[in-house]
């Protein structure tokens, strides 16, 4: 026969949970556009500073799209300039001139989009921190938005991530 002293406390045994401690602000960083990764300058565990370039895509395709958009914008500007003169001489209608203005606006927007995509064909550290995981390597083809690096700054603290069964969840309180 075993005996035990009665004690005051909860009527459930203590929970034993296993989990992982991680930074609260983990960021999955990727490129806005897809392409072939030219280089990744960091590995897991490396410290990074805010604004540091971490990875870049091969620039050939993105640069070509930017040049193409620039040429289309230049052509639309020339056509609009000719159209303005022809409209002043009453050779073309107002509708034709408005179409030329629309074409110019569309070409300018495409150029702006191409510039934006070129700027986002590289990954820049949003804050100082640590690279937690490298999810791609140089020469790999990545899709737009595909995570390439997992980075954390740890500025907002850390959290414990664990799985808790429903029956155990009822025993937890803040």
How would you sum up this structure in a few lines?
By secondary structure, the chain is an alpha+beta fold. The protein has 3 helices and 10 strands, in the order E-E-E-E-E-H-H-E-E-E-E-E-H.
- What's the arrangement of strands in the largest beta sheet? 2-9-7-4
Number of extended strands:
10
How far apart are the termini?
Answer: 39 Å
Q: What is the strand content?
A: 25-35%
What is the residue-mean pLDDT, rounded to a whole number? Answer: 91
Please outline the major beta sheet: 4 strands, antiparallel
Overall helicity: 25-40%
Q: Label the structural class.
A: alpha+beta
Radius of gyration, rounded?
29 Å
Shape estimate? elongated
From N to C, what is the helix and strand string?
EEEEEHHEEEEEH
Individual helix count: 3
Low-confidence stretches: none
Describe, in plain words, how this protein is organized in 3D.
With 174 residues, the protein is of the alpha+beta class. It is built from 3 helices and 10 strands, in the order βββββααβββββα. The strands form 3 sheets. A 4-stranded antiparallel β-sheet has the order 2-9-7-4, with no helix packed on it. The protein has a 4-stranded antiparallel β-sheet with strand order 6-5-3-8, with no helix packed on it. The protein has a two-stranded antiparallel sheet with strand order 1-10. α1 packs antiparallel against α2.
């Amino acid at each position: 026969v075993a005996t035990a002293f009665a004690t005051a406390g909860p009527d459930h045994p203590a929970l034993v949970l296993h989990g992982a401690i991680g930074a609260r602000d983990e960021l999955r960083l990727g490129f806005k556009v897809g392409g072939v990764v030219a280089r990744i300058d960091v590995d897991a565990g490396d410290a990074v500073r805010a604004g540091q370039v971490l990875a870049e895509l091969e620039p050939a395709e993105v640069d070509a799209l930017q040049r193409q958009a620039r040429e289309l914008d230049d052509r639309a500007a020339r056509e609009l300039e000719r159209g303005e003169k022809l409209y002043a001489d009453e050779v073309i209608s107002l509708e034709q001139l408005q179409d030329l203005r629309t074409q110019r606006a569309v070409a300018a927007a495409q150029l702006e989009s191409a510039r934006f995509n070129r700027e986002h064909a590289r990954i820049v550290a949003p804050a100082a921190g640590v690279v937690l995981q490298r999810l791609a390597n140089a020469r790999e083809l990545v899709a737009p938005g595909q995570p390439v690096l997992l980075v954390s700054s740890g500025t907002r603290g850390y959290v414990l991530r664990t799985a808790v069964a429903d029956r155990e969840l009822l025993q937890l309180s803040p």
